[in-house]
Amino acid sequence: MKNAHTFSILFWLKLANTKNGKAPLYARITVNGKRAELSLKRKILVSNWDASKNRLKGLSNETRLINNFLEQIHSKLFESYQKLKTENKLVSSNKIKAMFLGTNEKHHSLADIIDYHNQHMKSTLRWGTQKNYFTTHKYIFLFLKQKHKTTDIFLSELSYKFIIDFERFLRHQKSMSNNTVMKHIERLRKLINLAYKMEWIDKDPFIKFKAKYIRKERTFLTLEELQTIENKEFSIPRLQLIKDLFVFSCYTGLSYGDVMSLTNDNICIGIDRKQWIYSQRQKTSIPVKIPLLSRALEIIAKYKEHPNAINKNTLFPTISNQKLNSYLKEIADVCEIKKNLTFHIARHTFATTITLSNGVPIETVSKLLGHSKITTTQIYAKVIERKVSQDMILLEKRI
Length: 399
What we know:
mainly alpha, elongated
């Protein structure tokens, strides 16, 4: 990310430390108004210094040697500046100083940890998660450009103020909800935590920061809404496929990615000698074992000979998540369902309408969903409690 910089080099005497008429010689590097001072390990007679030219006065051999030394320093500092610009890296007075002193490898920047994360996490993170990180990186660099007038920043410069300023910046982005802002902050937090573990940074700037998520009500289909979709037959093959995939998820609790990755090898004989799905969640790699209900088995059988599924060796024909959710909007319109129908609603429907509402213990539902913590599943239990309350209010009105 290119950016315009103001850059200057000034040689000066630190007159406050004058002793016996001599003062230490310093170089001042300034980038975008921010300074870094560099001791040149020389002491100069104050009377011989020309402050207007930033050089020694006179024609003596010592004067020529020191002035030549200053020219070399100037040249090396300028080369460091040009190198950083050419490589599109962090351009700051401290970075130039670090390069000059040969200690640059100790000064890790925010871009360094982002690059490290991108290189070393690509094999462990699924593509969807990687794309989310790339989006966060985009906002980080936009924030640095607009608010700090730079392309990068040292990890050692990160602070609590940097975090809350970044949060405020995100909140001013178009159509970004509170929880989306928190997701970006959490990804930044994971990057900084990685740097802290690798000892690239001495302190954790997030130590006083607390993410504030707004708990959203989980949307799910009622039994009547689910049956409306199930009973609807579509003459358009793509809509019929999407309907079947959605209903299959309603009866298994599997997410889009998990459904699309299913193969015949995932269908196994369970402890009850009936057919089960043995798989693991793409998102968390947690193993899941799901007994197949008759409705789910019917849908599997329906697509057993489908050319697309056979060609790709999957249980169902594959389709992108974006297209799938787009077609679900059509299905919702046709079935007169007013909810914003997405594929993930099927998973919520399995948790609420299919299992918890029918007396399946929450511990079992947690296992079926592949949750690592039962507290995650308890969110659905609260939804059921609210439904019980609403039903009782209706009963009260009737009697």
